[in-house]
Design brief:
The chain has one domain (about 10-125): Hotdog Thioesterase (Thiol Ester Dehydrase, Chain A, Roll). The chain starts with 10 loop residues before the first strand and ends in an 11-residue tail after the last strand. It contains two helices and six strands. It has helices at about 30-45, 50-60, and strands at about 10-15, 60-70, 80-90, 95-105, 110-120, 125. By secondary structure, the protein is of the alpha+beta class. Strands 1, 2, 3, 4, 5 and 6 form a six-stranded antiparallel sheet that branches. Residues about 1-5 have low confidence and may be disordered.
């Protein structure tokens, strides 16, 4: 299957920064951003009626990160209110490429990411085609 461009409808998920997200100086630890991106993608799926636990239990399928590129622009700080965005850039037979950003309330972009997830059969741990109709609109 050749790559297909999909509409880049923007999904946004709010995040608040807590002590557990930061280093001793109150600056968000770099790995915390990965959790924020993951939560937003999960909530995007949930907003479409896709529950990852259900597709794993019913079909033995999971979505795993295949590749990720991050551009750290500015630091998030303790107590910041953030908005994490998700937009589909490309859909292939067994993967989806996302453009994601994290903004501080007020609009300052803190992080820009591209993330490719792959649909994987957990029994064989091999990529498989995303079932038709699994993700509405894709």
């Amino acid at each position: 299957m050749t790559p297909t461009d999909t509409p880049a409808a923007l999904f946004t998920w709010p995040v608040r920064i807590y002590w557990e997200d930061t280093d001793a100086g109150g600056v968000v630890y770099h790995a915390s951003y990965l959790r924020f991106l993951e939560r937003a993608r999960t909530e995007w799926l949930r907003s479409l009626g896709v529950h990852q636990s259900g597709i794993k239990e019913e079909g033995g399928l999971v979505f795993l990160v295949r590749e990720m590129q991050l551009d750290f622009l500015k630091a998030a700080l303790l107590d910041d209110e953030l908005q994490v965005t998700v937009a589909v850039k490309e859909r292939r037979a067994a993967s989806i490429l996302f453009a994601q950003s994290i903004y501080r309330a007020g609009g300052t972009e803190l992080l820009r990411a591209t993330v490719r997830i792959a649909c994987v059969d957990t029994r064989r741990m091999r990529p498989v085609q995303i079932p038709a109709g699994l993700i509405p609109g894709l």
